[in-house]
Amino acid sequence: MNIQIFGKAKCFDTKKAERYFKERGVKFQAIDILQKGLSKGELNAVIGAVGGIDNLVTDKAEEFHLFKYLTPDAKPDKLAECPKLYKTPIVRNGKAATIGYCPDVWKKWE
Description:
Blueprint (H helix, E strand, L loop, with lengths): L2 E5 L4 H12 L4 E5 H4 L3 H11 L13 H4 L7 H7 L8 E4 L2 E4 L3 H7 L1
Parallel strand pairs: 1-2
Antiparallel strand pairs: 1-3, 3-4
């Protein structure tokens, strides 16, 4: 397993995800999405794994009112510009990915 957890330092579900893998002795790479974001390749892989870019976006962010009216082509650039829009955690294992706290899916990865 090659686990990456993209999250926010103050996100409760991100902390739960990290604890899930720590308790099982699974090494992971924790990435602060607010500082690093996702590369274009990572973003495309996650979009494919989770069924579309709109599934990655939280409607709780202040910036959401701007995002929802963008054309599909403009949405990836807006996410790169404003990582607060991501739902977290985004947990990747190779080409597979989840959004939020999903221990049932992660258990299948073990």
